[in-house]
Amino acid sequence: MKKFLESRFLRLIALAAGVFATSGLAPAQTHYVLTNDDLAFPFQTGVGFFTVGTNGLPVFLQQVHTGTFGIGGGYFGMNRLAVLNSASQKCVYASEALNGFIVGVDISTLTVGGITSGSDTDAGTTNGIGMVMNGNYLYASFSDSNTIGTFAVQPGCSLTFIGDTSVIGLHGGIVNGMALHGSILITSYTDGSIASFTISGGTPISNGDEQLSTATVTSQDATYANAIDITKDGHYAIFGDTSTALSVEVSDISSGKLTKTTVFKSRASISSSNILLSPDETILYVVNTQGATVSALFFDKYTGKLSAGCTSGPLAGLSQNWSYLGAVVPMSQSGNGGGVFVAEFGTVSGIATVPLTVSGQKCSVQEAKGSPTADPNTPGLLSIESFPPRSF
């Protein structure tokens, strides 16, 4: 589902005087919330760095100016940031869709390391460029060319382009969400298709398991898989659906391929285009992207089954400041995460802080006092990440 940035030039003029990057050292293991500010032409974009205050809320530190241009919108399920936390380097990569660039930022120095592009035909100017990565490769989904570019990780937070894999949904759908675990890469498409690839050799090779998700079939195309997460042991793939209800699907991938998805549905809110499994895999956070709420579902990592949990009230500022909720990261990298930070897409974009409390099989999830934290450098925030990242 594409959400284009509307013309907001008066707002952008004000943003042009925003804070840009300055050189300087930063502790490598500082807890950051990162933003792909995705600022559209004619204003150059960047990556925002937020620390976490003693009250648990993000605090704006600075923007690392990438010198490139975003598009201010696109598909919910696309991760426009990818984080590398290896022994040799700490990097965040941002896709800048207007130029087709992927920019690497050194987290230790808060400076740009490298700028890379794919082939001459790779493009994501309409709906963005998604990314996932492991320690050796970064995979970029180009929405206009319907290709997945493979890039080799290099020193200095740079990349080397290796080649493209052409992809398409069963009914002509555009590549959307991606997730990887070990040697498997999983994709979703805008027509409700899902598929997997083996990446044991680097470049993705189809596993021949492309299929329509169960929810797409039963809803007669009114629902389609969007964002994807995979359990720590690689047993289950979880899909957050764009839907008129809360809809989440689970596929057993223990064979190395996708199997028919099992659907969990609820009328607690509208849509579930962004999801996140908690660090201990007991909670699936569901961002109700068009329902202005966050849900927490109980998840059994041994059986792959979901059960009802809790849903927040409407987050502050809907319509006045923002229109949709976007990507989600845990507040903590231990236990159930303690809640989540959520991107807010709109004229006054920001990061909502939504803590979680759990007692047995009951829970509560509500927005924190003082939330949201404004992102001063974007009117169209969809993608956020955390550093250090979740361990899987």
Strand and helix map with partners:
Layout lengths: L8 H7 L16 E5 L9 E7 L5 E8 L15 E5 L4 E7 L4 E6 L4 E7 L11 E5 L3 E6 L4 E8 L3 E9 L8 E7 L2 E6 L3 E6 L6 E2 L4 E2 L1 H5 L5 E7 L5 E7 L3 E7 L9 E5 L7 E4 L5 E6 L4 E8 L4 E7 L12 E7 L8 E7 L4 E10 L2 E4 L7 E2 L8 E5 L5
Antiparallel strand pairs: 1-2, 1-30, 2-3, 4-5, 5-6, 6-7, 8-9, 9-10, 10-11, 12-13, 13-14, 14-15, 14-16, 17-18, 18-19, 19-20, 21-22, 22-23, 23-24, 25-26, 26-27, 27-28, 27-29
Would you give an account of this structure?
The chain has 392 residues and is mainly β. It has one domain: Methylamine Dehydrogenase, Chain H, CATH 2.130.10.10. The protein has 2 helices and 30 strands. The protein has helices at residues 9-15, 214-218, and strands at 32-36, 46-52, 58-65, 81-85, 90-96, 101-106, 111-117, 129-133, 137-142, 147-154, 158-166, 175-181, 184-189, 193-198, 205-206, 211-212, 224-230, 236-242, 246-252, 262-266, 274-277, 283-288, 293-300, 305-311, 324-330, 339-345, 350-359, 362-365, 373-374, 383-387. Strands 12, 13, 14, 15 and 16 form a 5-stranded antiparallel beta sheet that branches. Strands 25, 26, 27, 28 and 29 form a 5-stranded antiparallel beta sheet that branches. The radius of gyration is 19 Å and the shape is globular. Residues 1-28 have low confidence and may be disordered.
